[in-house]
């Protein structure tokens, strides 16, 4: 438990900073909602002049920007991008920071098992993710109430935001796995940005080509905001895929970390 609390103390400020960034981004866009809602017909007319593949790639073909949830759903795609970078960065840092700081050998020499170390690290990251989502959802609700004078279905709003949890856990799991596979990680953020934007490009291709097979290769496709607004639920096949991949990443992390040779100081 000492490892768990130490990790929380070291990382909570970073989590708060990223969460505030997400909320400020949302606030900036939501101030535009009233103007966009009034001129949505003009915007739609302009969109007809662009190639339909581009409109789909930008996520503008299936969301009604004149409604609170439609506009929020579009902005949420960018919020999700920021959250994914944070989650992947946190996952990679959780186990690799000891190696970068040259304290890994000292840590594993303590009378605690490697399984305990990994568990404490995972619990700390997941705790921070949960706290981030709670803070974000509360803040997002207040922002929408202030900036949008329009009714919206609150359970659907909550469902949209809870997709953050599943997408962030995917990237946390992937980050943990990468941290035990890659021997030397000098800087985490560039790696996290590159991987997340790679998945984001895949999502844009998926939307542009409307290729359901491609959707399985990017977690950004697992929770289609337009379909959540329309049906009020997640797609079970993608939810199942997400959960399975999270479990696979986690199990592999435990197995590889048990066998990993730690560099001496």
Notes on the structure:
With 265 residues, the chain is mainly α. It has one domain. Helices cover 77% and strands 0% of the residues. The protein has helices spanning 2-30, 33-38, 40-47, 52-57, 68-100, 104-108, 114-147, 154-181, 189-209, 212-215, 225-231, 236-259.
Strand content: under 5%
* Rg value: 20 Å
Average pLDDT score: 86
| Total number of helices | 12
User: Which ranges are low-confidence, i.e. pLDDT below 50, for 5 or more consecutive residues?
Assistant: none
User: Structural class of the secondary structure composition?
Assistant: mainly alpha
* Strand segment count: 0
Q: What string, H for helix and E for strand, traces the elements in order?
A: HHHHHHHHHHHH
How far is it from the N-terminal to the C-terminal residue, by CA?
25 Å
Helix content: over 70%
How would a textbook summarize the main sheet?
none
Tag the structure with descriptive keywords:
265 residues; mainly alpha; 12 helices
How is this structure best summarized?
The protein is mostly helical.
Question: What's the topology here?
Answer:
Blueprint: H1 2-30, H2 33-38, H3 40-47, H4 52-57, H5 68-100, H6 104-108, H7 114-147, H8 154-181, H9 189-209, H10 212-215, H11 225-231, H12 236-259
